[in-house]
Design goal:
161 residues; mainly alpha; disordered N terminus
Length: 161
């Protein structure tokens, strides 16, 4: 029911593409898993698993099988979590980008920045360098205006004194 409401809401906001059920299910699993993975109880459970494994070491004589259990378990969990967390981060990044694009579009920022996340690394570096140069030029300009204002104030003080 909630996923249907989300799909209808997305369609109402201009998203005319319907997500497949498998994509929708994967997205929901990724969201739930990535939210849960960052919580304290999950961390405590992971620490408990490692402690139990470590405590059982002497019982199994620190055998190769005993070591293989933790290595295999952690590898599988890590492998699966990479995909789930990446999916959540991709969607979060896309949502933030859309919000920033809208703020740029309606604000006083330059609209030419909308969509720059799709440029190559070299093009982005060029834009970043240009923005830094502009910021430095503005800072120098502000400093010059402040200095001129101070000198004008000192000159006015000298003439009135």
């Amino acid at each position: 029911m909630a996923s249907t409401a989300r799909t209808e809401k997305a369609e109402g906001q201009g998203g005319d593409k319907k997500r497949s059920k498998s994509s929708q299910l994967f997205g929901e699993i990724a969201n739930v898993t990535s939210r849960a993975a960052g919580r304290a109880p999950i961390f405590v459970a992971a620490v408990a698993v490692v402690l139990i494994w470590a405590i059982t070491g002497p019982l199994f004589g620190y055998s190769d099988t005993w070591q293989l259990v933790i290595n295999t378990g952690t590898t599988i969990v890590t492998f699966l979590m990479v995909f789930l967390i990446q999916n959540s981060q991709n969607r979060d990044g896309a949502a933030i980008q859309a919000k920033l694009d809208e703020l740029i579009r309606v604000g006083k920022a330059r609209n030419s920045f909308v969509g720059i996340e799709r440029l190559t690394d070299e093009e982005l570096e060029d834009i970043r360098s240009r923005c830094e140069r502009l910021a430095k030029a503005e800072k120098i300009s502000e400093s010059a205006v402040c200095l001129t204002g101070k000198k004008a104030g000192q000159a006015a003080d000298q003439t009135t004194a």
